[in-house]
Structures are given as C-alpha cells and as structure tokens.
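Researcher: Go.
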Amino acid sequence: MVDGSGRGRPRSESARVAVLHAVDDLLVEVGYAALTMKGIAERAGVGRQTVYRWWSNKAEVLYEASVIDALQELSVVRTGKPREDVKAYLDALVGFLTRSHAGAAYRALVGEAQHDADVATLLASRDILGESAARVVEPLRAGGGDTLPLDQATALLIGPPFFHVLSGRSADGIDTGRLAEQFLRGLEAA
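Model: Structure:
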C-alpha cells in the first residue's frame, strides 16, 4: 500500500508504541548483548520488517525509547525554592539511573558507546540528561549564577550521581540533599 508520498505503507503508531514499550523491558530481561531486532519485534508483536522500516539497529530503538521515557521521568515540578528544586531533580535522576527500565537502557547505551562509534554518535546527537538538568539549572543561572556556561553547570549537577551509579556503586550512598547544597554553593562561587 502506498501512502500518497510513494514511500510505502504509513507508519502505524500503535506498532511503533508497542516496539518502544517492548525494547527496554526486553533489555532488562536479556541484557544488551542478547537484545536483537528479531527479539524486539517478537516482544512487540510486529514483524521484523516493521522494526527495520523505522530503525536501523537495536541501539536506535533503545535510544528512542529511553529519550521518550527520560523526558517524563526527569521532569520535575519547580517550586521556586532552589534547594528543593535541585534535590527533586537529583532524586529523579538517581531513580532514572537505578530503578527505571529507560535508565537501564540509557546506561547500556553509554557502556556500548565506549567501543561502538555509531552508538557514541547516537548518544551525542541529543543530551537527554543535560536537557532535563537545564530546565532546573537555567532559572538558577538567571537569578545571578550565570557566569558558568549552562553546559558546565548541568555537568556539575549531573556528574556526581552519574559517576557514582555508572561506576557500579549503590545508589544508597547518594545524599541528594547534600549534593544539592554543594551544587548551589558551587554555582554561587562561579
């Protein structure tokens, strides 16, 4: 069937959503190395060609699913109280990195990017953690902490819990309240 543009069958939103829901669940069950396009298609209840029509490889599917979920999971309601806002974001970030299937997908992609240039390029195409942190950091910079570039400020916020989790340590050792205070002091000092 042609959709009028000559490009073939139109993309089925329900099939796309099924694939995106299937991929990070499957990743948690089998791990990145065992994740396949065939397995993703089977879990989603769609044909393999359906998956290949939209994505070239498992990293692309996993990345898209992770981005969509991260946008929701890392969105925090701002109160206007800097310490509370930063702590709420850090709590969401730690939860995303340690308890979320989307966070598991993101961590798997970060690991894979260390030796796969295509995955590294994919991750570099959009900084989902930096974007989410910027929504919390930008109002703080507007209030006088704007001497530090936004990307550096977001890196200061994200860096400590990100390193802690990705280096294999338990999230139990992360004190988001203390990290929020340190971040705010660092932003003021800059």
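Model: Residues 1-8 have pLDDT under 50 and may be disordered.
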